[in-house]
């Protein structure tokens, strides 16, 4: 094998970009973990582009904000196409790290982020993976097969005090469509509190 061929082979073996997903129920620290990963890339001198859904104005309109007040300036977007356009505008001469908060709220962001990952960008997302009716969010399902790292971030069930992996909607509208809200509308639940309650309702 020639030196040039060996170099090409070596480059193919080294994964220079990642697709990291931080998922779980509300109040599980997903955004905190994602922003910690962002800090690591900042120390490496990587260019960071952050996005949040334009419908989510909790805590701040212009920043991704954790429940503990950690902030990262972000661009508000309505769909995945807007993410594509902004990234392509900002990365004409190289790749970047793309951080997306509440990815499940952004239509078509799943396909957009997979495409950008294939072009060599690193992608970090924080998101609920399941709706309050127990069904997977389409955007998150589209990304899972491409993830190089997935961390499920449990919260604490306020009733049982056990690890909670699911989100129950007990306020707001009666349907399970996406509705922006906080502790007044949603709470993390363990298996019994989430699926057990569903089974109970079906048998009533």
Quote the distance from N terminus to C terminus. 70 Å
CATH architecture grouping of the domain at 16-153? 3-Layer(aba) Sandwich
Major beta-sheet overview: 6 strands, parallel
CATH class of the domain at 16-153: Alpha Beta
Number of helices: 6
* CATH topology annotation of the domain at 16-153: Rossmann fold
Strand content: 15-25%
Topology (elements, then pairings):
Elements: H1 3-13, E1 19-23, H2 30-43, E2 48-53, E3 63-65, E4 71-73, E5 75-77, H3 80-90, E6 97-101, H4 109-118, E7 122-127, H5 138-143, E8 149-152, E9 155-156, E10 163-164, E11 166-169, E12 186-189, H6 191-203
Parallel strand pairs: 1-7, 1-8, 2-5, 2-6, 6-7
Antiparallel strand pairs: 3-4, 9-10, 11-12
Helix pairs in contact: 3-4
Describe the structure.
The protein has a domain at about 15-155: Rossmann fold. The longest helix is centred in the first third of the chain and has 14 residues, at about 30-45. With about 200 residues, it is of the alpha/beta class. Helix 3 packs parallel to helix 4 (about 110-120). It has helices at about 5-15, 30-45, 80-90, 110-120, 140-145, 190-204; strands at about 20-25, 50-55, 65, 70-75, 75, 95-100, 120-125, 150, 155, 165, 165-170, 185-190. The termini are far apart. Mean pLDDT is about 85; it is low at about 1-15. The strands form four sheets. It has a six-stranded parallel β-sheet with strand order 5-2-6-7-1-8, sandwiched between helices. The chain is about 30% helix and about 25% strand. It is built from six helices and twelve strands.
């Amino acid at each position: 094998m020639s030196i040039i061929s060996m170099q090409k082979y070596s480059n193919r073996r080294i994964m220079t970009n990642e697709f990291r997903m931080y998922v779980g129920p509300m109040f599980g620290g997903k955004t905190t973990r994602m922003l910690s990963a962002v800090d690591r890339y900042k120390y490496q001198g990587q260019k960071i582009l952050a996005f949040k859904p334009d419908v989510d104005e909790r805590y701040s309109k212009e920043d991704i904000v954790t429940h503990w007040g950690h902030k990262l300036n972000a661009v508000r977007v309505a769909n995945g196409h807007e993410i594509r356009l902004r990234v392509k505008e900002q990365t004409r001469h190289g790749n970047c790290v793309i951080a997306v908060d509440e990815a499940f709220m952004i239509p078509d962001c799943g396909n957009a982020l997979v495409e950008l990952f294939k072009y060599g960008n690193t992608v970090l997302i924080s998101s609920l993976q399941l709706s309050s009716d127990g069904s997977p969010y389409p955007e998150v399902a589209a990304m899972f097969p491409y993830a190089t790292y997935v961390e499920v971030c449990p919260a604490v069930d306020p009733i049982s005090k056990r690890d909670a992996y699911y989100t129950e909607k007990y306020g707001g509208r009666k349907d399970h469509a996406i509705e922006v809200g906080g502790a007044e509308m949603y709470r993390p639940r363990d298996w019994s509190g989430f699926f057990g309650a569903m089974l109970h309702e079906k048998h009533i």
